[in-house]
Each structure stands twice: as C-alpha cells, then as structure tokens.
Amino acid sequence: MNDQRKTKKALIQELNSLEYADSIINTVREPLISLDQDLRVVTASRSFYDFFKVKPEETVGQLIYNLGNKQWDIPKLRELLETILPEKTTFDNYEVEHDFTTIGRRIMLLNARQIKRALGKERIILLAIEDITERKRAEEELSKSEKKYRELYDFLPIPVYEMDLEANITSANRAIYETFRGTEEDLKKGFKGWQLLSHEEIEKSAKNIQMLLTGAAVQGTEYTLMRLDGSVFPAIVISSVIYSDGKPVGLRGAIIDITERKRMDETLRARDALYRTLVETSPDVILLVDLSLNIVMVNLQTLSVFGYASTQEVIGRSAVDFIVPEHHARIVEDAQNILGGGVL
C-alpha cells in the first residue's frame, strides 16, 4: 500500500514537473524538443513548430529522424544522439549544417541533456536548437572583408603598421620589412616601435603620441628613422589612434620615405645657389621682374650701372622706370608679347 502511494505521489510530481517544464519550454525563444529513450518526440516548444514550420500532430510521438518527411534524418544528429550522448549524457554547441525542405539550408548549434524522470525508469533527452545561419554568414562576410583588407594592407607601397600603447608592433605590412631591411620575425613579438627611431627622435615621438592620445590633431611629422642594420633615412610619419569601445588601445601609422625628396631639394638648392652666383657675378645688367614688370631681383652690375648702393633701392620698382620715356610703350608691348608666347 505504501509503495502504491509512493508511486502515485511520484507520478503526480512527474506530471506537475512535466507541466512546469512545458511552460518553461514554450517561453524560450530558441526551438526546444524533448525525446524519450527511443528518440521519439515527447514535447516541442512553440518556437520549434514556428521555426521549422511543422504541426504538433505531425511531431509528437514521432521518431525524430522521421519528422518533416525525414528532414531530420541527419548523419551528424544520429552520431550525436546515438553515440556521443549515451557516453557523455550532455553535449554543448554541436554544430550541424543541413538543407531542410521547409526552411532551406541552416546552420545550427545543438545542446542536449539527458534528464532522469521522477520514476527513475526512463530518461528523456532535452534538445535545444540555436540557429546560427545569419551569424555564420556575417562571420564569413567579415572574414572575406578582413582578407581583402589584409591583401590591400599587405600590398600597399608604403610601410603601414599598428602598435599597442606599450609600443609593441602588433601588425605590419610587407613594405615595412623591405623599408627597414628585416623580416616578419624581426618585427614580431616584443619589438618596440621606438626601436625604429633614431635616438634623437624618441622624445619627439613620445610627445606627439601623447598629443594624439589626448585628442589633439597632429599632422605628419618628419623623423629620422633607423633601419635594423643601423642605417638611417628621413621620413614623414602619419599616425592615428586605434579605439575599442571608445577607449584608445593603440596607434596606426604610415611611413613615407622622403630620401629622394630630400636629395631633390638639396640639388635644387645647389642649382639655385649656382644660378644666383652666375647672375650676381655676370658683367651684364640682369633684372628679374614679375608679371606687372615690378623688379624682384637685380645683380650687382645693375646697381653699378644705374648708380644704386643697395638692392633695396631697386626691388619693387617698375622696370619701366629704367627705360627712356619714348621706349615705354615698346617695352610694355614686348612684355605682353612674351607673356602671350611670342619671341622677341
């Protein structure tokens, strides 16, 4: 008699538990389904019916592999339920990809638990299904974008790098290795960005970085950089702050080698100095005028011929003032002819 009461009490508790469990299952957004030990459906959540577009009368009591015209007869699901679950009693985040008749190709994460029933004779399997198709697609698109970005980043003709706030270089493109005459291993773990600066430039770099981190605008700065072999070269470094969740986490920079520009500037300065020397020492009267015929430069011979003591007395005056009045019109006409592309 006592055994009967205990069995009845356990049965009532189980029924109450199942009713309570059904209420929970139906409030969960992800599709849930419970199976008996023979892998037949005991109950399914509303979200399961809605998501997989099936009806309760076609589902409850059915072998899971026969659901929806056998669209759940998935080899990986069989492996999971018949091999993995009996050994482990639980599994988490088991990824399954399958082409369903009703909803098309989906990628799902399956989580399962074996639960002992109140009477202790049977176990039920609670199977939770998370559709991650869109997340996977987004991850794939992000991966493609990152790959394209990396390819573009790698093949940029100018050196580009990223470093953390401790100045560890975390990323660099191929041009970095070529410019600094090193390998990826040289510029990898533990390598500090300041090691690429000549010793005199470290303090200047630290000040600029501090200004960037406080939000100040810093234009491209000229530095003398040092290659891994110890040789140096002039460059413009353009930097910006890398943010994560609104906080600065590092710096991104591009390096423009200006060695050739510097050489060209030096050549032009040398040519200009030679030109000025030739003009200054020429025995001829030479004046340089602007488009309004105002004098902007004269040589020493001009001062001597016209009796001036210094260039300040001549610069800014009109060249016409140095021509006899009867030739004023002609000099203006000649100047206009030259400006129009003519030849005197």
What can you see in these coordinates?
This protein has helices at residues 2-27, 46-52, 67-70, 75-88, 133-155, 174-180, 202-213, 259-281, 300-306, 328-339, and strands spanning 32-35, 41-44, 90-100, 104-116, 123-131, 160-164, 169-172, 221-226, 232-244, 247-257, 287-289, 295-298. By secondary structure, the chain is α+β, with helices and mostly antiparallel strands. The protein folds into 3 domains: 2-133, Beta-Lactamase, CATH 3.30.450.20; 156-256, Beta-Lactamase, CATH 3.30.450; 283-339. A 5-stranded antiparallel sheet has the order 2-1-5-4-3, sandwiched between helices. Strands 7-6-10-9-8 form a 5-stranded antiparallel sheet, with helices on both faces. A hairpin with a 5-residue loop joins strand 8 (221-226) and strand 9 (232-244). Residues 1-16 have low confidence and may be disordered.
How far is the first residue's CA from the last residue's CA?
Answer: 134 Å
As a percent range, the share of strand residues is: 25-35%
CATH-level-2 architecture of the largest domain = 2-Layer Sandwich
Largest sheet: 5 strands, antiparallel
Globally, the shape reads elongated
CATH names the topology of the largest domain as: Beta-Lactamase
Helix-and-strand structural type: alpha+beta
Quick synopsis:
The protein has 344 residues and is of the alpha+beta class. Helices cover 39% and strands 25% of the residues. The relative contact order is 0.05.
